[in-house]
């Protein structure tokens, strides 16, 4: 990736996401009706019966530890970990290098 004629990143898309966006979204389908339980490093985005959606700050909490907390606190029927969309990654790179995607 080049910004103002300078190479700002030269690696894989997966490494782009790891380097510039330090959050993930966890979507949980539960075997029981959900009850909000505080989970360190997570923000509740949405809660409905049998479903929770959380955002995790990877700088505050490793994903493995949060998943262990989830499994200890809930009866999980299904769990999905989502990575940020690529357009958010690119926008973060431009912000980090002092230029917004809108000013390109």
Please tell me about this protein's structure.
- With 104 residues, the chain is of the alpha+beta class.
- 29% of the residues lie in helices and 32% in strands.
- Helix 1 (13-20) packs across helix 3.
- The protein is elongated, with a radius of gyration of 17 Å.
- The chain starts with a strand and ends in an 8-residue tail after the last helix.
Summarize the structure.
The chain has 104 residues and is of the alpha+beta class. Helices cover 29% and strands 32% of the residues. The strands form 2 sheets. Strands 4-5-3-6 form a 4-stranded antiparallel sheet, with helices on one face.
Q: Indicate the radius of gyration in whole angstroms.
A: 17 Å
N-to-C CA distance: 13 Å
Helices, by number, come to 3
Measured as a percent range, the helix fraction is: 25-40%
Strand content: 25-35%
User: What's the architecture in CATH terms?
Assistant: 2-Layer Sandwich
Mean pLDDT: 82
Overall CATH class: Alpha Beta
Question: Total strand count, please?
Answer: 6
Strand order of the largest sheet: 4-5-3-6
CATH topology: Alpha-Beta Plaits
Q: List low-confidence stretches.
A: 100-104
Can you summarize the main beta sheet? Answer: 4 strands, antiparallel
Shape estimate? elongated
Counted up, domains total 1
Helix-strand sequence: EEHEEEHEH
Judged by helices, strands and strand pairing, the structural class is alpha+beta
């Amino acid at each position: 990736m080049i910004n103002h004629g300078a190479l700002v990143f030269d690696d894989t898309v997966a490494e782009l996401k790891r380097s510039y966006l330090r959050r993930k979204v966890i979507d949980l389908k539960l075997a029981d009706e959900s009850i909000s339980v505080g989970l360190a490093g997570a923000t509740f985005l949405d809660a409905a019966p049998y479903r929770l959606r959380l955002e995790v700050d990877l700088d505050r909490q490793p994903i493995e530890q949060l998943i262990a907390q989830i499994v200890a606190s809930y009866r999980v029927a299904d769990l999905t970990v989502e990575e940020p969309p690529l357009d958010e990654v690119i926008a973060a790179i431009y912000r980090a290098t002092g230029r917004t995607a809108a000013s390109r």
